[in-house]
């Protein structure tokens, strides 16, 4: 028997809150990645690790906030806690690998493609591992083409976000990139949910179990607290707001070496002809 799926049992509340969480995690993670490019190598791993945890926690929280509005008529839904938290670990680790590649190799070329691909696969792996943690009286089935589209969306979103983080163009630039990343992550989630169908076994009578909100809400407290702490760290770091180094290197200051060189050359050219004229004028043998 085919189960009736409702992904919006709370209306627009869960999609909007989920989108906000994806944007928050993306904004903090991208700012930390940007900050890592402005510090010495000794501080870089710490900022990249903080950025990885922020993005991973943000997309994980987004997923399970959205899943609070997911129901299947005729069967209660339960979640395996070990697998649920395993999906959080997978998200942080795989996003971290991608961010560290971009943080040390730069947001361009092969490094950007590799980092974006791994980060996108981490987002998709988190989503489908989180879906596998569901337990219900039925079987989950997926449309392969739609799943492929959702993975492509995740990879494209991650690559674009990491490229934006590498541009170091200020706070507003990163905010815009985080809004796009949040939209893409949410789009990936609901595209993956559109690929889902549930075939009910009908072996157990429908029971009134705990709602997904009651099951998931306690699990979200830790990641939410971490995102708030990461936000405090970002807020009190002045370079996170500026998004650029405080002092430009001396060799990049415009005009000074070239100006001095040109003036010196002109000075030498101006006095060379006068020496020649004076030398010729001193030859007066008829006065002897």
TrEMBL record:
Residues 10-199 form the MHYT domain. It comes from the Bacteria. Residues 261-288 are annotated as: Disordered. Keywords: Membrane, Transmembrane, Transmembrane helix. The keyword Signal does not apply. Residues 261-274 have a biased composition (Basic residues). The chain crosses the membrane at residues 12-34, 46-70, 82-104, 111-130, 142-164, 171-193, 213-236. The keyword Cytoplasm does not apply. PANTHER family: DOMAIN SIGNALLING PROTEIN, PUTATIVE (AFU_ORTHOLOGUE AFUA_5G11310)-RELATED. This is MHYT domain-containing protein. The lineage of its organism: Bacteria, Bacillati, Actinomycetota, Actinomycetes, Kitasatosporales.
């Amino acid at each position: 028997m085919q189960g009736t799926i409702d992904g919006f049992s709370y209306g627009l509340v869960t999609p909007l809150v989920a989108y906000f969480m994806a944007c928050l995690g993306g904004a903090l993670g991208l700012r930390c990645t940007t900050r890592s490019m402005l510090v010495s190598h000794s501080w870089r791993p710490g900022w990249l690790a903080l950025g990885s945890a922020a993005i991973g926690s943000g997309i994980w929280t987004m997923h399970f906030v959205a899943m609070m509005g997911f129901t299947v008529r005729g069967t209660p839904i339960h979640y395996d806690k070990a697998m649920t938290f395993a999906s959080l670990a997978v998200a942080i680790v795989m996003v971290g690998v991608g961010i560290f590649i971009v943080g040390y190799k730069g947001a361009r070329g092969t490094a950007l493609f590799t980092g974006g691909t791994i980060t996108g696969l981490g987002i998709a792996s988190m989503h489908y591992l989180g879906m596998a943690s569901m337990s219900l009286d039925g079987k989950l089935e997926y449309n392969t083409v739609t799943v492929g589209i959702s993975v492509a969306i995740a990879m494209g979103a991650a690559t674009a976000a990491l490229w934006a983080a590498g541009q170091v163009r200020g706070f507003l630039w990163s905010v815009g990139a985080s809004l796009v990343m949040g939209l893409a992550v949410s789009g990936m989630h609901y595209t993956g949910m559109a690929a889902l169908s549930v075939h009910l076994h009908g072996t157990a009578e429908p029971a009134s179990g705990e709602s997904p909100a009651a099951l998931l809400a306690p699990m979200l407290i830790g990641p939410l607290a971490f995102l708030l702490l990461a936000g405090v760290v970002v807020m009190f770091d002045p370079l996170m707001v500026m998004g650029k180094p405080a002092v430009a290197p001396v060799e990049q200051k415009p005009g000074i070496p070239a100006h001095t060189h040109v003036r010196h050359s002109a000075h030498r050219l101006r006095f060379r002809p006068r020496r020649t004229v004076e030398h010729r004028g001193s030859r007066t043998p008829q006065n002897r």
